[in-house]
Specification:
Elements: E1 4-6, E2 9-11, E3 16-20, H1 24-29, E4 39-43, E5 48-49, E6 55-57, H2 59-62, E7 70-72, E8 74-80, E9 96-104, E10 106-107, H3 108-116, H4 122-125, E11 131-139, E12 150-155, E13 158-164, H5 172-182, E14 190-192, E15 200-202, E16 207-212, E17 216-224
Parallel strand pairs: 3-14, 5-11, 6-17
Antiparallel strand pairs: 1-2, 3-4, 7-10, 7-15, 8-9, 8-14, 9-11, 12-13, 12-16, 16-17
The chain binds magnesium ion (MG).
């Protein structure tokens, strides 16, 4: 098992689960259908980085014009505090250790081309360094309402995404009730709650800055994968 430091908190997650299509404005910009149930997918642990590490733009994407678009997605994430299976929405907050910022970096052209031929999102989501987390885990008791937080992402100091977590379609209690019917969540698992609109391309040498009210901000540089 591998652990990662998020500020002063070290966590040892077994999985990262992300919600897709959880903000209406983002669904519109991607021409996707509005879900009637939460849409979730898994990111593998090789993707995970925290403070001080760059996002690596893979050469296999950069050098292929069918795949050369990688997008930022800023998201509120929460960390699980205790084993969680078949829980009800009204007890959901008991299972949350704290909140943090998550960047769900996505190989967008690859995702769209796979989606169009009904393949999973798996490969477009799971390149090394495509999950960024930080700057700290804010204890859940310090954030009374996680559904009223400003959320923002800048690329090279220009605002690209700016919204509020109140616009989530499936709120945290219902998503946790739903997920826990499928999967046993265990302490330190990471759940990312979906991205608002404004997703767009990043490029080598860009600097990304993500902000969520009451949590803080993270800053990461994008670099092109080295040639060996
Ligand atoms: Mg996402």
């Amino acid at each position: 098992m591998s652990s990662i430091k998020i500020g002063n908190t070290e966590i040892t997650p077994t999985k990262i689960i992300c919600l897709g299509r959880n903000y209406l404005e983002h669904i519109k910009e991607t021409n996707a259908a509005i879900p009637t149930e939460p849409v979730f997918f898994v990111k593998t642990l090789n993707t995970l980085i925290s403070e001080g590490k760059p996002i690596i733009y893979p050469r296999i994407l950069y050098e292929n014009e069918n795949y050369n678009r990688v997008d930022h997605e800023v998201e509120l994430a929460f960390i699980i505090s205790k084993p969680c299976k078949n829980i009800s929405a009204d007890e959901a907050f008991e299972y949350i250790k704290g909140y943090t910022i998550f960047l769900d970096v996505t190989a967008r052209k690859m995702q769209i081309s796979d989606r169009n031929i009904k393949l999973p999102w798996y490969r477009s989501k799971n390149f090394d360094t495509f999950s960024v987390i930080g700057p700290k885990v804010v204890p859940s008791k310090k954030i009374e309402n996680p559904h009223n937080l400003k959320i923002e992402l800048k690329v090279n100091n220009e605002i690209r995404q700016s919204s509020n977590t109140k616009h989530m379609i499936f709120k945290i209690p219902e998503m946790l009730e739903y997920l826990s019917k499928f999967i046993t969540l265990v302490p330190d698992d990471i759940i990312a709650t979906g991205t608002p609109s404004g997703v767009g391309p990043i490029n080598p040498e860009d600097t990304l800055e993500a902000y969520i009210e009451k949590i803080g901000k993270i800053q990461h540089k994008v670099i092109l994968e080295r040639e060996d």
